[in-house]
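Crash report, auto-generated. Payload:
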Amino acid sequence: MTDQTDSTGCITRFAPSPTGHLHIGGARTALLCWAFAKANGGKFVLRIEDTDQTRSSESSMRGILEDMAWLGIEWDEGPELSFEGKDLGGDPRAVGPFFQAQRLDLYNTHIRTLIEAGKAYPAFEAPEVLDAARKEAIAAKTGYKYNRAGLEISLEDRIARMDAGEAHVVRLMMPDESITVHDAILGDVTVEPSEFDDFIIRKRDGFPTYHLAVVVDDALMGVTHVLRGQEHLINTPRHIAIQRALGFDTPSYGHMPLIFNPDGSKMSKRDKDKLAKKAVKEQKIESCPIEGVSDEDFAKWLKDKTRQLASDDLIALAEVLGITLPEIDVEDFRRAGYLPGALNNYLALLGWNPKVKNEDGTDLEHFDMDYLGQHFTTGGMSKGQSKFDRVKLMSFNGDAIAALSDEEFASLWFAWAQQYDAELAGRFDEAAMLTLAPAVKTRCKTLADGRTIVGFALVADDAIEYDGKAVHKALIKGDKKGLELLTGFRSVVAAMDDFTPDAIEVAVKDYAESQEVGMGKLAQPLRVAATGAAVSPPLGQTLAILGKDAVAKRIDLCEAYVEAQVSAAS
RNA sequence: GGCCCCAUCGUCUAGCCGGGUCCAGGACACCAGGUUUUCAUCCUGGUAACGCGGGUUCAAAUCCCGCUGGGGUCACCA
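Recovered output after restart:
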């Protein structure tokens, strides 16, 4: 076995199967594969593993490509995609195609070679027969292993029957020797031959299994380093066996720890459906409350825990149920207003550590893609499983947002709103968001949070809901000074020409001084009048966002409201 | 259940390979102060961990063994 530790010409790959959205765990695998290639001056290849004919889909494939591009995990070779002016993918080394379903001839050639060399063989048992044997073994509490019954027939006969078109699978003749994986993250892992049987490398439908396809493709595409999830660790000896049978070099392997939910359960794409099903049951909903899904499909979905609703339907359902779905797929995080840089940063740090100190002695935790692409090493990976902490991610995201210039923030926020919050995008254009930026940036952890912060500007002047406590404290309590100040400031507002945040701040300050009260005495009544609540961005910004006319109107409305409250109480 | 992987604050981790400088450092969260016209930001301080039991050693978070716990895997899915 050749262990390729030489990084020159290093090639890594990410090979998702297009059976759903890009899962956050998959994104991390892709990110680290990308980082490893970059850090070693190599290439990152994207390959689509669509050998499962029943589950693969074109739309899922496109979604995965776009999610990766959005994250900025750019593949050098693979399916082509234009994204925000960048052309990704391509086949400069002529090692494609990058869709396994288009590579059947390649697999069949290699399978034929194996069969003729006696290293693999066709077997003709019906699936039912094997299933029965497996069930029997489980019932008897012994491990099931294929019994090599297929070998009872002579090789010539087997090949003849196969060539005559008889239904069959092809199995690899597993050698009777232990196999050691030299794992870059976990160290050496040895598995005994008793743990293996002659596993299938080509299915009845003529498609190769994952094991065969991945080995042939990695070899033919020149992949030198394989980084993948730890769930594949046990598969690796099988892959090494195929490589040896075919005379291929064995790439360097690194198996990464898996990511879990905070409660310790596995982070699954079904988590969203699971939560929705629970809510439906708790709320005792009988028929489907959303359009586009029939009651029949709804009932099936509810009963079958493996069944998933389409993404849009699930979002609509969550809204009806009043629940928040957990973010699981990259798309979910994008919708929730996370920045790709922050997501990548957090994802990389979940299981990898640069082990570098900042000048102030704290550990380096915040870094960008350039840094990752220069410094990533498998040696910095931890071995243990980790839990996905959304709170820390959110903190990273808030930091990333705060670090944005006002212009960058406005641009990103507007683009986000156009895609996910039409009402917000309709109320504020990018220029308006630029004026909002200083007020919003330090107050939101995600782009979606921004809406809450400027929520007061989203409601009509006469539709403000007043926070009773806030009104009482700022305007009614005590000697009614709050209301007087508010009324007095009303005429100051009316006389202002320059209604900008700075001008407003000055006006408020001056008026407070002229009345010989502290800023707060005037600021809080104004804030309550303008927003209905005791909490808002700085007053100058808050009032400027609304505009002079709206502020004047809201002061009038508030006064009327307070008077009504006071007379009702007395 | 068999086999395989893993195990430091609530969470992510540094330290472990080359035992002593670790009554264990950082980050997020949390708590208490401070700055601030509110909120947020920001600043200061604090609570909090080597899973358990054996060894080896003058000395163990660091090395060895066992246990416990978590996870993966046992498909004509990938």
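Post-recovery validation: The first helix of chain A runs from residue 24 to 39.
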